[in-house]
Amino acid sequence: MNRVLIGKVSQKGQVVIPIQIRKALGLKKGSKVSFELNNGEITIKKLPTALDWANLVKQIAVEDVNIDENGYFDPKKSPDFHDWMVNG
């Protein structure tokens, strides 16, 4: 969505976010947004919810790694550990 949409500021300083943007971002009643002012331009961003964070954490791979006293691990038991350490 690369088009300009217009909102109007109310007497109380409230702005209605156009429906196309609310739908695209999944904004609902109670959703939180942040405002950033930079060189006369305002950036509005949707803040992640607890559910957003929970879904993100679910995507993190879990692997038990046993490292011995010399700092070595068994790559057969932890096949993804090396790539994770190198690539983050």
TrEMBL record:
Q: Please list the residue ranges annotated as the SpoVT-AbrB domain.
A: 7-52
Q: Per the UniProt entry, what species is this protein from, by scientific name?
A: Lactobacillus kimbladii
Which protein are we looking at?
Putative antitoxin MazE protein
Q: Which GO terms describe its molecular function?
A: DNA binding
Question: Record's InterPro entries?
Answer: SpoVT-AbrB_dom, SpoVT-AbrB_sf
Pfam families xref list = MazE_antitoxin
Q: Which domain of life is it from?
A: Bacteria
